[in-house]
Specification:
By secondary structure, the protein is α+β, with helices and mostly antiparallel strands. The chain has helices spanning 8-16, 37-43, 47-50, 70-81, 133-156, 171-188, and strands spanning 20-25, 32-35, 60-61, 65-66, 87-95, 101-113, 118-125, 159-161. The model has no long low-confidence stretch (mean pLDDT 94). Bound molecules: flavin mononucleotide. Residues 22-24, 30, 54-56, 58-59, 73, 76-77, 92, 94, 104, 106, 121, 123, 125 line the site of flavin mononucleotide.
Length: 190
């Protein structure tokens, strides 16, 4: 599918939010169309280094190779291939540009045109392994706010966002597990 142009209003809106956000085109490999400043701050990559690439590069570590993330990738594949799956929310092991591991709580949704076809994939990233419960709740509130504010901006481009942000059922357990994964990754560094 030919890439659509991201409107300046949409780009400005995304850049103005404090949570990490990314948009990907719906092409054969979901290449990133834009990332905001908070995404660059979180991952250490500049926007010019990542636009045009599939975001799976965040799963690659220079010292540890690619992390498997089997369950997370299965959930993401289901979301990307099944039209009735509106959103996905999953922890996934990622690495910053300077090879620091983190567990990314990845949220993804679909931006659809008036014809019902997906025009972009929308995503938000959060380091849940260096977080605690109140930080996760703050992030959820900020992401919900960002999504609500996004709707009128999207409307101008004839787009709507699918689904809504589901909160994590047992956030405390998820944070604890993310911290455990992080400490294993940090101690496994060669
Ligand atoms: C907009 C968008 C943002 C994404 N963000 C991330 C991310 O931050 N971290 C990550 O590990 N994967 C991210 N992904 C998922 C990967 O790009 C990819 O879809 C996933 O690894 C499953 O495909 P694969 O098994 O072919 O790698 C994102 C995908 C899209 C479309």
């Amino acid at each position: 599918m030919a890439d659509r142009q991201i409107s300046p209003e949409l780009a400005n809106y995304m850049n103005g939010t404090r949570v990490a956000l990314a948009l990907a085109n719906v092409d054969d490999d979901h290449r990133l169309a834009m990332v905001n400043k908070a995404f660059c701050d979180l991952t250490g990559y500049g926007s010019e280094e990542v636009v045009g690439k599939n975001c799976r590069f965040l799963q690659d570590s220079a010292s540890r190779g690619r992390s498997e993330n089997t369950d997370a990738r299965t959930d993401i594949h289901r979301f990307l291939t099944e039209p009735q799956v509106e959103t996905v929310r999953t922890p996934i092991v990622n690495f910053t540009k300077d090879d620091r591991p983190f567990v990314n709580l990845l949220f993804m949704s679909k931006l659809k045109g008036s014809n019902g076809k997906t025009a972009y994939i929308f995503a938000s990233q959060f380091d849940v392994s260096r977080s605690h419960l109140s930080m996760l709740h703050d992030y959820d509130a900020q992401l919900s706010q960002a999504i609500s504010g996004l709707s009128p901006v999207l409307q101008e481009s004839g787009l709507i966002i699918d689904g809504s942000l589901a909160t994590i059922a047992n956030s405390a357990a998820m944070i604890a597990q993310a911290k455990m994964i992080l400490s294993q990754l940090e101690s496994a560094k060669s």
